[in-house]
């Protein structure tokens, strides 16, 4: 079982060394960089990674590009702001010594986020299981604008590994707000429109409060104290903004459709 650890990057000079070091056990470290303007590629190369430049095609497409370019059939996908915990490394190590016939086709791992100086337990942020180790002949990255994930072939066997993937996701509240307003909400709204989902005036009003209650109360965000409260507030902001953007997009699409001339003209009597 030979594994390529695949990492996609753009201006990740602050993160890439620690990310590479956490997967130093892999048979190959592959970094696919979307034309960084800092020294991400140089740092990755010094860490022993094979570095490929590829213009940004979107999250899913870039991860699929890395999967296809890997030297080995087993792929471990890692984001630059993630680290493999010792427990997870040990679990993967036990797989590498197992017989091929005993292996599943893919493995999920729990992801634990570090936020506001603490490891988050609630709010829907943990265990946040992600399918990150898989045999590329049996899986591919779904074509999605955001929250990309691996889709396994029908009949593929998927199991869960022990140990956490550690996620150093957001620096502070300002960074959190910036990510919501420039990435998560706009891309989430576009994905909803692509999926055929629509919103309404009522949903615009209730989306934010409902997201807050779901995060802080139903999903146990209260257990994380001030950090959990902040996460719930940003969940509300994200939901409200996403629905507002979707409302604008769907109305614009309706207006464009109404202004498109009929191919049959005015008809004939």
Secondary-structure map with pairings?
Elements lengths: L2 E7 L6 H7 L5 E6 L6 H7 L3 E4 L5 H11 L4 E6 L2 E3 L1 H11 L9 E10 L2 E2 L10 E6 L3 E3 L8 E3 L5 E10 L5 H22 L6 H18 L6 H35 L10
Parallel strand pairs: 1-2, 1-4, 2-3, 6-11
Antiparallel strand pairs: 4-8, 5-11, 6-7, 6-8, 9-10
**What's the CATH class of the largest domain, please?**
Alpha Beta
Mind telling me the C-alpha Rg?
21 Å
Low-confidence stretches: 263-269
The average pLDDT value, as a whole number, equals 92
What profile does the largest beta sheet have?
9 strands, mixed
Secondary structural class: alpha/beta
Note the total helix count.
7
Broad shape: globular
- Provide the CATH topology of the largest domain: Spore Coat Polysaccharide Biosynthesis Protein SpsA, Chain A
Output the CATH homologous superfamily of the largest domain.
Spore Coat Polysaccharide Biosynthesis Protein SpsA, Chain A
Helix and strand succession? EHEHEHEEHEEEEEEHHH
* Span between termini: 72 Å
Total DSSP E strands: 11
Share of residues in strands: 15-25%
Description:
The protein has 269 residues and is of the alpha/beta class. It has two domains: 3-167, Spore Coat Polysaccharide Biosynthesis Protein SpsA, Chain A (Alpha-Beta Complex); 173-258, no CATH class. It is built from seven helices and eleven strands. The protein has helices spanning 16-22, 40-46, 59-69, 86-96, 173-194, 201-218, 225-259, and strands at residues 3-9, 28-33, 50-53, 74-79, 82-84, 106-115, 118-119, 130-135, 139-141, 150-152, 158-167. The strands form two sheets. Strands 1, 2, 3, 4, 5, 6, 7, 8 and 11 form a nine-stranded mixed sheet that branches. Strands 9-10 form a two-stranded antiparallel sheet. Helix 6 (201-218) runs antiparallel to helix 7 (225-259). The N and C termini lie far apart (72 Å). The model is unreliable at 263-269 (pLDDT under 50).
